[in-house]
Specification:
529 residues, alpha/beta, Rossmann fold, Helicase, Ruva Protein, domain 3, Zinc Finger, Delta Prime, domain 3, 4 domains, 4-stranded mixed beta sheet, 9% strand
Length: 529
């Protein structure tokens, strides 16, 4: 009978447990020096080695000739445990034996000495499935068991265990196994099983396993089913994933509102009999990577990417703002939840969501509105957005000016001419200044909740044609208070972050403007976007 690869290659000694050295080193020391605990709690995600370590520990404490804290796997005790003939090692699945009567049976058995081994070992898998009564029945026995009994509890959901159970055990947290470690182990198994596989294909399998060794080995066996060389394309085809290129093409199509490409991608996934939900989860993962790349300075620390993948991610991340990525992530997550509901037509859900992501005016969610406002503020700050004038009012003003011009010309004195020349430069200068939107938020970040906030918040910031920033105050007192506070450097840093510019402290000047706010539009409808 064929034996699954994950069972065939299950580690038999602590040294063969990959990615959990922080746990196996302690267990080896304890068993080698006969200082092991009466109760252990192994917690972590699936396929990370919890049950494997429990079985190795059961053999190690009973081995007649242990080797550096690990079982020899050759003595009578080890062979009996491996064959299942040792009645002193009991493995129980709490998912199907979760009643109080099952725990009472254990409580009645522990008083008896082992029949053929040194220690009686109880391995309780998925212990979080025990009922409340079963946990209560286990408490006293777990706290003070006989000296010949060892309990090993394993769970994937630690939060469901009562604190009274956790406090009575020596707890070990099994981590998700790193991708490079998984690739190394898969490469070794493939070599031993005469399976030809590309390095990138093994890396794709390791990523799909999400840190689980058992899942990784099972996927390797699945991809090797037709006994041909395992390539990255074969992995995508076998598992039903879209592939990196298809994901990237989808993201770029969203940024350009290329609906033909978007509908084509969904149609290809459906026609190939792949699960749209799998493709959708990969799309969510890609957005997560873009968000990490966009928001952190050391993205490589949180992303497991090759140089080529990183370069591709950098290009696509530049197509979106942080607010847009957050809005898209929310939409993708909501639609995945909808897909998982009974009766949901996944294709329609996917197509509707992709259209909304491409055209933000179709989504009225708060995240999307924040994304649109953020883009608008950046456009206004950079001068890319122009104000919309009321055409009728402009024409009427021009008509009145034309009618009044002859009279004004006749009555104009030499003093008026000189005054007009003096005012000409400030008026021209004012036209070239562009209001910095979101000034209240900038003031809040600079002044916090201090007394300067009121002075700074009533001011207005402008970018000028000569590449400077002008901060206008309504009176001399407000400007003097800000000048004395010496916050220009902080103000410069916040403006640079908000506007994505590189002003220096010398580029910012303060002014007093008696007519502050008279030449500014008051709502977003006055902008041409």
């Amino acid at each position: 009978m064929h034996q699954a690869l994950y069972r065939k290659w299950r580690p038999q000694v602590f040294d063969d447990v990959y990615g959990q050295e922080h746990i196996t080193s302690i267990l080896k020391y304890e068993t080698e020096n006969h200082k092991f605990s009466h109760a252990y709690l192994f917690c972590g995600s699936r396929g990370t080695g919890k049950t494997t370590c429990a079985k190795i520990l059961a053999k190690a404490v009973n081995c007649l000739s242990p080797v550096n804290g690990s079982p020899c796997n050759e003595c009578e005790a080890c062979r009996a445990i491996d064959s299942g003939a040792a009645t002193d090692v009991l493995e129980m699945d709490a998912a199907s034996n979760n009643g109080v009567e099952n725990i009472r049976d254990i409580r009645d058995e522990v008083v008896y000495t082992p029949t053929m081994l040194k220690y009686r070992v109880y391995i309780v898998d998925e212990v979080h499935m025990l009922s409340g009564s079963a946990f209560n029945a286990l408490l006293k026995t777990l706290e003070e068991p006989p000296s010949h009994v060892v309990f090993v509890l394993a769970t994937t959901e630690l939060h469901k265990l009562p604190a009274t159970i956790i406090s009575r055990c020596q707890r070990f947290d099994f981590r998700r196994i790193a991708t490079d470690v998984l690739v190394s182990r898969l490469s070794y198994i493939a070599e031993q099983e005469n399976i030809e596989a590309d390095r990138e294909a093994l890396r794709a399998i390791a990523k799909l396993a999400q840190g689980g060794m058992r899942d990784a080995i099972s996927l390797l066996e699945l991809c090797a089913g037709n006994r041909t060389r395992i390539t990255e394309e074969l992995v995508d085809s076998t598992v039903g994933s879209g592939g990196k290129e298809k994901i990237r093409a989808t993201v770029e199509a969203i940024s350009t509102a290329d609906y033909d490409t978007l509908f084509g991608v969904v149609d290809e996934v459906v026609r190939s009999s792949k699960d749209i939900a799998v493709f959708w989860q990969e799309l969510i993962s890609y957005y997560r990577d873009m968000l990490v790349f966009k928001t952190t300075k050391s993205a490589d620390k949180y992303l497991d990417l090759t140089d080529n993948e990183r370069e591709m991610l950098a290009r696509t991340a530049e197509l979106f703002t942080k607010e847009t990525l957050l809005a898209h992530c929310r939409m993708l997550d909501d639609s995945l939840y909808t897909m998982q509901k009974a009766g949901a037509v996944k294709r329609i859900v996917a197509e509707m969501t992709l259209i909304k992501m491409s055209d933000r005016t179709l989504d009225t969610g708060s995240d999307n509105i924040l994304s649109r406002l953020s883009k608008l503020e950046m456009a206004v700050a950079s001068g890319a957005v122009a104000t919309v004038k009321n055409t009728t009012s402009v024409k009427q003003t021009e008509k009145k000016s034309a009618e009044a011009a002859p009279k004004a010309e006749e009555n104009k004195s030499a003093h008026d001419v000189n005054s007009e020349k003096k005012a000409e430069k400030p008026a021209s200068e004012a036209k070239t200044q562009k209001l910095i939107r979101g000034w209240s938020e900038i003031a809040g970040r600079v002044a916090g909740d201090g007394y300067l906030l009121s002075f700074l918040k009533l001011a207005k910031g402008y970018t000028t044609a000569d590449g400077k920033v002008c901060v206008k105050f309504s009176n001399d007192f407000a400007m003097e208070m800000i000048e004395k506070a010496g916050i220009k450097a902080t103000l410069c840093s916040v403006i640079n972050v908000e506007l994505q510019t590189s002003y220096s402290e010398n580029d910012i000047r303060y002014e007093v403007s008696a007519e502050l706010g008279s030449d500014e539009p008051d709502d977003l409808d006055s902008f041409d976007v």
